[in-house]
UniProtKB/TrEMBL annotation:
GO MF term set: DNA-binding transcription factor activity; sequence-specific DNA binding
InterPro entries cross-referenced by the UniProt entry: LysR-type_TF_proteobact-type, LysR_subst-bd
The organism of origin for this protein: Neptunomonas qingdaonensis
Entry similarity comment: Belongs to the LysR transcriptional regulatory family.
Pfam families referenced in this protein's UniProt entry, alphabetically: LysR_substrate
Example of a GO biological process term: DNA-templated transcription
Domain LysR substrate-binding, first and last residues per copy: 11-204
Name listed for the protein in its UniProt record: LysR family transcriptional regulator, glycine cleavage system transcriptional activator
Length: 211
């Protein structure tokens, strides 16, 4: 059976806001250059998609990749790093021992409780029971806070690559917290033959750096 024209040329994508702004949208010009006939609708939302009731063909989700009745393919693994503004880094003579970070102004992500403790523990450092600092909501606010220059925050390395390359941010430590979870391209099994989806999948994996 031939696909409907809308299935060939249209794709509705749900994606987490920070993934959209920090990774996907800056790269979309490459997708349109290669696929000018496809109309891509990108909806940035923190809500998880229910493919049975929501009008989406595909989603990019953070997790372990196990969602019922879907095909999920890993884009990249979580890689959490401590980043800060270069000015703060230079105030400390250009280096931070992980133990010293407990004495620095830290940004805490309210949607990832305990991430600083997990990050420090994975580096072999016994953190205090509580870490002081400022709590913000979501990764986008963490990025905004550390870009202002006065605090250190934990972010996914994939979201700050351009800032590190341009010198807008620096790593406060070389330690990276990795895990089994990450960002996945996921879609219902029933839509796997959709031409626009196949084109998008081929393109997005061509944009992912090998880990």
């Amino acid at each position: 059976m031939a696909l409907r024209e809308s299935e060939k040329n249209f794709l509705a994508l749900s994606v987490a806001p920070v993934f959209a702004t920090r990774w996907l949208l800056p790269r979309l010009k490459n997708f349109y250059a290669q696929n000018p006939e496809i109309n891509l609708s990108v909806i940035a939302t923190p809500d998880l998609v229910n493919f049975r009731s929501d009008p989406f063909d595909v989603a990019i989700r953070m997790g372990h990749g196990h969602w019922p009745n879907t095909i999920s393919k890993r884009l990249f693994t979580k890689r959490i790093v401590a980043a800060c503004h270069p000015d703060l880094f230079e105030k400390n003579s250009g280096t931070f021992a992980i133990e010293e970070l407990t004495k620095q102004p830290l940004i805490h992500n309210s949607s990832m409780k305990g991430l600083w403790l997990e990050w420090m523990s994975s580096a072999g450092v016994v953190p205090p029971n509580e870490l002081s600092g400022i709590e913000v909501q979501g990764t986008a606010q963490v990025l905004e806070a550390i870009s202002s220059g006065d605090a250190i925050g934990l972010v996914d390395l994939s979201f700050v690559g351009n800032d590190l390359d341009a010198g807008r941010l620096v790593l406060a430590s070389e330690h990276v917290l990795s895990g089994d979870d990450g960002y996945f391209l996921t879609y219902p099994e029933a839509t796997s033959e959709q031409i626009s989806l196949q084109r998008f999948e081929q393109w997005i994996f061509s944009e992912v750096d090998p880990e």
